Amino acid sequence: MLHFNRCPHLKQIAQKCFASVHVRTDKRVQLFLARTFALAEFRKSWHSTHSLVGDKNIILMGPPGAGKTTVGRIIGQKLGCCVIDVDDDILEKTWNMSVSEKLQDVGNEQFLEEEGKAVLNFSASGSVISLTGSNPMHDASMWHLKKNGIIVYLDVPLVDIISRLKFMKIDRIVGQNAATTMKDMLKFRRQYYKKWYDTRVFCESGASPEEVADKVLNAVKRYQDVDSETFISTRHIWPKDCEQKVSAKFFSEAVIEGLASDGGLFVPQKEFPKLSCREWKSLVGATYVERAQILLEKCIHPADVPAARLGAMIETAYGENFACSKIAPVRHLTGNQFILELFHGPTGSFKDLSLQLLPHLFAHCIPPGCNYMILVATSGDTGSAVLNGFSRINKNDKQRIAVATFFPENGVSDFQKAQIIGSQKENGWAVGVKSDFDFCQTAIKRLFKDSDFTGFLIMEYGTILSSANSINWGRLLPQVVYHASAYLDLVSQGFISFGSPVDVCIPTGNFGNILAAVYAKMMGIPIRKFICASNQNHVLTDFIKTGHYDLRERKITQTFSPAIDILKASNLERHLHMMANKDGGLMTKLFNQLEEQHHFQIEKMLVEKLQQDFVADWCSERECLAAIHSTYNTSGYILDPHTAVAKVVADRMQDKTCPVIVSSTAHYSKFAPAIMQALKIKEINHTSSSQLYLLSSYNALPPPHEALLERMKQQEKMEYQVCAADVNVLKNHVEKLIQNQFI
What we know:
The protein is of the alpha/beta class. The protein is 46% helix and 15% strand.
């Protein structure tokens, strides 16, 4: 067996290079009393088996032409350690012939076996190892390498790889036959690279080997520093003693807990990661799934969700369950207006973009041995999206994760109610509440803050409460992707060049969707203005204009756009926390005042800061219907009522000096009566299914939503529960559901 000893001073060198890495010790596990009682131990175990300092190897993986050998040598020089090139130092020395001669001698299949055997017969420690492009196609040898190393995937643009291979006069690689092009073979190999990597280095087009080497070292440093990316509550009060440790949570804990114990919302302690201009440009030609993988890997530490596992979740979440392969396509509407279509998921609303992924994240993050009851308040679309998403987790996870959605019994459209009730599965239920959405949302928050109730559920039933509303960070984060992707699509389609500004106009209720656009800007997307569009429940518009959040004398008005019939915008707290330089004390004061006195006023400096980026206005019911009618007449495109609200406000507030992307948050089929009224179709009193089929006969854009049509074909009416607007009544319902599911 070949063996390479690590360089004698590697440990000291690595410690010097990674001096800022902090190792967490002395973790206590409090069984059941902490919602995520086992996570600390999991992370400690993860760290002990993935430490770079010491005998671990840095293993560079990627396609031929990715620059692994050159980058490996640069890293070796920086760290002063051994550099091993598998081609030169292992294969050719083992075979006593060149790699190309061996391939010609034995053929593709036998070559992979011979190559794998050679790798299995060597070991190394404290080294930088540059793999061949075909090493990842042999499972046994990769497991052998992975046991003692961190596998870094050099993700180089395909166009760069092909250009480099041409320059090197390489016209055939392992596995390629006469009928396969080089491009197709390289695409085929990606599945193997994605299977093995621990961390990815996204190499923008034209990046130099020195730049890539620095990125590798930064990626390895991040990979090792498991405590570097934590979350705090928006109501966290910073200790006066700077040396006092901040009470922070990890991504996995924030996802599981949903709401912070002090009533605040979880936010990253650090700034969002920012991509360079060249990195963004390298994503212009990428698919939605590829963009999501790159962006979310940068926002989720691999100690919480390993990169390869996260990639698999994303591929599952944004696959055949979406009616459009582009997932969230951008369509030119008129003039400088573009529609971001967020309704191609299985339940026909933008909620699918996060709620097809969140259940997989949640199931991965929860510790074994605990049951979880997810409570969700819905103003219409969230309920069916949550139930659908959690129905897609695997059978074992369904046995320990259940969902209860609470919706205003008379505050959603008939179709939305039918969709919510019809989405009930073996691990999900719908409960109608005789009140409005704000009561549902406030009541659920009160359940989370009731330590006697949550403690009772843990001790009596071994069940922990969590949330899948946009108060949950794992629900909000995936929404960042589609705002970034929309901008990249405009670049790809030639409407703008990268760096040109755009505005976004978003129908806004709970402030989550528009906040995700703010986060996209923080990552480097050049969004100029955030246009907040309200309906007749325009508390947010008033707040943006005045800085006064005033719920006194206000009651929710039911409108044609029920998903934004909201007065208490939960995610606003996250944005105010960021604007106020993470002043948790101020957030506690403001939102306690809102709870007790039903209003608060922010200071002038914060109002001015808010208005630098935000403008807002609202739309009447008459204007909403008129916009649907006029847009159909001029372009043949049918807007749903929420999108119509946004278009009215965009027409009024946007100065037309740059493109504006209007978020279309639902398919019009979900609001057939309003659409028929807007289009002046007389047969309004038809059943929901006949209304949908009548609208689909118009051959309008966007096309009919097949999943929604299939839903209406289901004749069987499912039972559901209805309860009074009383927190204690909700408690009883939750306990009974837990008994039915877990006992």
